[in-house]
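user: Kindly work through both lines:
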Amino acid sequence: VLHYFSLMNKAQKGAGILMTEFKKASITNSSFIDNSAYYDGGGMFCESSNDVASLIIRYDLFSDNQAHKGAGISGLKISFVFVMFSKFTRNYASSMGSGVYMQLTHIFLNKKNMYLSNNVGYRCAGVNTISTEVISNINCLFLNNSQGGVCAVFLSIVTNINCIFIKNSHPDDKDGIMTVMSGNKVVNIKSTF
């Protein structure tokens, strides 16, 4: 998908884009603004039962979207997710992951993205992952997100390289990086808090 524009759509899931049972998808130079999903994926919802499905998000804007989970992007059972050069701002999730919410993903690579300007969620506003094996944040900015910048749940290795975390809040973590449940490991390399 190239140069897609989604404005003020409403749906149960995936108000901007709904993708199911795909093997490879790429969203480039697109905008998802003021979309609302009752359940998951205000801007976009992606789900695949295929163990090799990949999703690439490049140069996209996710702004002012709302959903229960994943107000910007919500994904389920995707092997590889690569988000780069994209901006997530003022998204609201009533539950988890106002910027990005991923569940049952093998690898989540987050490069040169901005999560800023009041992404708000009940649990983790920037990036929220559940049962994701590897999460790498490279050259990302997490600014002024409520309920934490990055949240990893269940057996994740989270690596933050050259990332900046400023004014992210969470009651359980002064740095705004929240990891919960068992088996998580966080490695910070040249990151600023």
Notes: DSSP finds no helices and 26 strands in the chain. The radius of gyration is 15 Å.
